[in-house]
Fold this protein.
Amino acid sequence: MTKVDAYIMPEGGSASANDAAPGIERSDAKAINSRGERDLYAKRQWVYPKLARGNFRNLKWLMMALTLGVYYVLPWLRWNRGPDLPDQAVLLDMANNRFFFFFLEIWPQEFYYVTGLLVLAALGLFFVTALAGRVWCGYSCPQTVWTDLMVTIERFWQGDRNDRIRLDASPWTASKVFKKVATHISWLLVGALTGGALVFYFRDAPTLARELLTGTAPAIAYLFLGIFAVTTYVLGGIAREQVCIYMCPWPRIQGAMIDHETLLVSYQVQRGEPRGPHKKGQPWDGRGDCIDCKACVAVCPTGIDIRDGSQLECIQCALCIDACNGIMDKIGRPRGLVAYSTIAHQEALVIGGSSPLKLIRTRTVLYLMLGCLVAAIMLAAYTRRSELEINVLHDRSPPYVRLSDGSVRNAYTVKILNKVHEPRTFLMTVNGVDGAKIEIIGVERGGKPEVTVRTDDLREVRVLVTLSRDNADALPSTSVPLDLTIHDTTSNKATARRTNFQRP
Amino acid sequence: MSEKKNREIDAFTGVETTGHEWDGIKELNKPLPRWWIWTFYACIVWSIGYWVVYPAWPTPDGYTKGLWNYSQRAVVTAEGEAARAAQGALRKQIEATPLGDIRKNQDLLRFAMAAGNAAFQTNCSACHGRGGQGFTGYPNLNDDDWLWGGSVEEIQKTILYGVRSEHKDTRSSAMPRYGLDKILTDSNIDDVSEYVLSLSKRSTDPKAVESGAKIFGEQCASCHGADGKGIVEQGSANLTDGIWLYGSSKTAIMESIRNGRGGQMPYWTGRIDPMTIKALAVYVHSLGGGK
């Protein structure tokens, strides 16, 4: 059999017998990616997802618009941070080692914020997975969104499922070449736009857009644009469900988050079986509601049969719910043969009972509490975030210097990090050692020991603390604690750092 | 296709065999996954391109250079030049700014301190120590006692021309070998040493101090000054303070008088570029002792 034979070979005899119910044709779709059908030594079989119509399809369109919208628009949003800083709301400024996210500004040493955000994202993912299965996979994963976009483009040029199957089986005519080339060019264009949007997160978007168009952007921008154009084309246009089935680790992890009370897209076995074609006038008693029309298989983007139960290949996109509901409406049976339901409920149905939805259970409460805990820790860390960081480093070689008049001097390297969006001037004093005199290199001798640190900058100064011979000799030991205090001259806020003073 | 017909299916596993048989054991045909095979082929194709553009094969007289003429050494050189070019504005500014004014500008001071520190660690720390703390015979650059002057200009001059170096503009002076050259006797040297100790209030023998003072006036005062505080133009040491380049003990002082002293510092002009020497002067001056 050739690749296409698998799709167009009817499974039953004549055309009329191929109807699943009066007026409803049985789809020839095969669940080619079900575990039983897959073979590691076989060539990949192309999936031709049919366009579904219904609430979930509309929800997916909305999610696609939302996620792509955020992705493409975010780098263009502006955020005023004053004259000395970039005004891009979200910017990963690699050159200056800063990450700007609206009101947040993260320095490299504060990267734990990003770690916290990732932990929070992971816990959020655990939580929604425990509640409603792989909603991430089904609605918002970039792989899903871009694949959906690529399939839509393919449908635009080549038609829906049956047209595409026929086109692939037909010989190479000018029209086929045109349709195929147009599809691939559109995919590449989407890829280029995807990569094009990504680079805007790393450099001022309007400037970079001008540079990209005039060919004056940095080589690295073109390189990443190219990499993302190609990966988007390959993963979204060509690899598609193969990524979900073979490459992605998430389907393997999800099992740990899903339990009997998790809402999953499921086929109601109790109601559907025994399945079979339904003839006009035939009573519905003694048989299942499933007319085996395979509409659910035809719309499946990963090429499986939801009636086989919960499976790793299912990304829980709920398009089969839409497809089945459409059929149920036509044959006059209630909707929901394929619906969001829990395993517990399904099991209860078999013995004639039912199991109410339990959203509050140990697992969901635990995930939610952990998420709140991490969020609280991050909030605490953020509110306690100092807008001033001071590091004092005592000279090690030499630890002290005896001057010609017998006095003793210690030298310190002081680093002041000003995270406020305006320049600040600091007055430096020392406490803890009687008679200690302070001097800052670069501040003219005799002047006040004041340093000005510019907006969002780190200034390193060399500070000398001198003690007369008598005072040094009077120290109780060869090393005594010394507090270096930095006063903000505008707010008068003082910040002290403890170091030590040493003498021979 | 005829070949395919000849393949047999293994009855137990249902997998076709490759037709290879050893002692009745047949090999099942379990090919590698396609993605793996294609990745493998792609790597082979890639490697051929790699040979063409990059250095690849050894030849009797070297290696194939490749079309792109790539060399990591050239990349490092180019990166170094790019870094220097990026610093260009600051370097030019430092070259143009009078030495004493560099510390008044925050950016110039920052750059000079960084450049000076790097140059110091490479060229100076072997003798002066990594913090400029010095060793016996090698001056501590953190204190305020300078043989040849501690202003930033004098420090720059010392770096440029050295001390007792081969440069024609070198700073130079000599502490005579009073003992070796038999200018003073051993007892004279003992007396002078006692006198020198008395300058920093450490002598224990007033009689020796008295006779030593006379000898000091005749032999030493011309360079070290009548008060023993040293003369910067001569590069002579201040003998009254607590800082001793060759040790403060009487033995060390006697040794200096008997054998003379003539520490050397190499000249750096022509070996380090003028901008870096300027940065070095600012750095050393900023260690704390600068005047």
Observations:
- Residues 264-350 of chain A form one domain.
- Chain A is about 40% helix and 20% strand.
